[in-house]
Specification:
Length: about 290
């Protein structure tokens, strides 16, 4: 039972809403456009996305430890490899098993969506590993933020929409960007918190490359852009879609203010939780807007 607790910790459950929210938004977007929803496809897409994220988290846990990024000076949440709770080799195996399960979940999606879904699936798995592994680790080269915007936003929402509607349209792109930007806030806060320890192991995140001030402006920009994109929903005639997410704006402004007035420290672990809740609340309000439009 204790080991199961450690594995659950390694999955990073507080971050898994990053996989759930885009599927939820894409499904309600289908409702808004009066398309038939195939719930079996939605379930397979959700499970596949969760397994890819869990696999990425596990590989990140083991690889960061081996590269020294999760050393004694790290102030982020506890990692199972770092504290010896699970051997890094077993964590790596767990990551690959998760990718295999994601592939199995993707078989019905390929059957439904064809070669487009094959390409998306293969690219998602490759990038999931390449986030911290391989000869060009994205997170170590400053491309981690872009990866999250694309795969936990644009690709996730657009892929599910394509599976249901058989086409890709501008509304899926807008919703995907909104969801992806807010998901990336978690990565950006994480990188800002760890910029000193990351620099020591040559993990060249954007916070390391361009400094603390840039990282704060980046976070503020990614928090606020989804609200500005609501103007496009208003222009398209989706009044509730444009207005309901504004309920979460005070939470967004509070998060931005706290990032700017507090130096990177253990306190940023609480900000990660706030960013995760903001992502979930914004996505839920956006989804409700689609349902009642």
């Amino acid at each position: 039972m204790r080991e199961l607790t450690f594995w659950w910790m390694a999955f990073r459950p507080k971050t898994l809403s990053a996989s759930v929210v885009p599927i939820m938004v894409a499904t309600t977007l289908i409702f808004a456009f009066h398309q038939e929803v195939r719930w079996g496809i939605i379930l397979c897409a959700l499970m596949g996305a969760l397994f890819i994220q869990i696999g990425t988290n596990l590989l990140n846990d083991a690889i960061d430890f081996k590269k020294g990024a999760d050393g004694e000076g790290r102030i982020g949440p506890q990692r199972v490899s770092q504290y010896g709770l699970i051997k890094p080799e077993r964590v790596m195996i767990g990551g690959w098993v998760s990718f295999v399960l994601a592939t199995l979940c993707g078989i019905p999606l390929v059957w439904s969506g064809g070669w487009v879904i094959v390409a998306i699936g293969i690219l998602s798995l490759i990038c999931g590993y390449a986030y911290t592994g391989g000869p060009f680790p994205l997170a170590y080269k400053g491309f981690g933020d872009l990866f999250v915007i694309l795969f936990f936003g644009v690709v996730a929402v657009g892929g599910v929409y394509y599976l249901q509607a058989g086409t890709y349209e501008t509304p899926a792109l807008i919703a995907g960007l909104q969801v992806g930007l807010l998901a990336t806030v978690l990565i950006a806060i994480n990188n800002l918190r760890d910029h000193k320890s990351d620099a020591l192991v040559d993990k060249r995140t954007l916070a390391v490359r361009f400094g603390v001030r840039f990282a704060r402006v980046e976070i503020a920009t990614m928090v606020l852009l989804p609200y500005l994109l609501n103007i496009l929903w208003l222009y398209s005639g989706y009044l509730w879609v444009s207005l309901l997410p504004l309920i979460s704006l005070p939470l967004a402004l509070r998060l931005i203010r706290r990032i700017f007035v507090n130096e990177p420290s253990l306190l940023y672990n609480h900000f990660l939780g706030e960013a995760s809740r903001l992502h979930l609340i914004f996505g839920s309000l956006l989804s409700i807007g689609f349902l009642i439009s």
